[in-house]
Structures are given as C-alpha cells and as structure tokens.
Amino acid sequence: MATLTGFEIVRRGHDYLIHFNIDDGQTVEIKSTFEQLDLIAEEIDRQLDRDEETALAAGDDTP
Q1: Beta bridge partner(s), residue 20
Q2: C-alpha–C-alpha distance, residues 54 and 29, integer Å
Q3: What is the pLDDT of residues 3-58, one digit of tens each?
Q4: Quick check: 32 and 44 in contact, CB under 8 A?
Q5: Model pTM?
Q6: What are phi and psi of 55, to 5 degrees?
Q7: What's the DSSP call for residue 57?
Q8: Ramachandran quadrant class, 13 (left: phi over 0; alpha: psi -120 to 50; beta: rest)
Q9: Under 8 Å CB-to-CB from 47, ≥6 apart: which residues?
Q10: What DSSP line would sit under 15-55, residue for residue?
Q11: For a tag on the chain, would you pick the N or C end, based on fewer CB atoms within 10 A?
C-alpha cells in the first residue's frame, strides 16, 4: 500500500485537480468538483473529531 507524502489542490475552471504524492515518487491526479471536495473535507473533519473524542475518552490527549 502506498503512503501519502504530500498533496496539492489546484482550481481549474469550475473543477479542482487534486495531486496526491506517494512514497515511490509518483503523483496521482484526480479531478473533483467543488461539491465533491466539500464532501471530502466534511468527512475528514468527522473522522478527526471521532478520533479526537476516542483519544480523550481513553485519557490520551494525542489522537
């Protein structure tokens, strides 16, 4: 499984290009709409909030 080493989001017209850099030096390019990118951001926030709540409930202040 590849490991993410970096990313970039660039607006192109009405869409966005997301570049994911992976550990073998390759870049994966994905085209996304604003709505799709917004849904991704919301899901990332939900996941991080769940992880933070779980860590705090376990007495660990680091998610």
Answers
A1: 7, 28
A2: 33
A3: 999 999 999 999 999 999 999 999 999 999 999 999 999 999 999 999 998 888 88
A4: no
A5: 0.74
A6: -65, -40
A7: H
A8: left
A9: none
A10: EEEEEEEETTS-EEEEEEEHHHHHHHHHHHHHHHHHHHHHH
A11: N
Residue 12 is inside which H or E element, if any? Answer: strand 4-12
Fill in the amino acid letter for 21: N
φ and ψ of 29, to 5 deg: -110, 130
- 44: Cβ contacts below 8 Å, ≥ 6 apart: none
Phi and psi at residue 3, to the nearest 5°: -110, 130
Residue with tokens 């869409």, as numbered in its chain = 15
The tokens for 4 are 């993410």
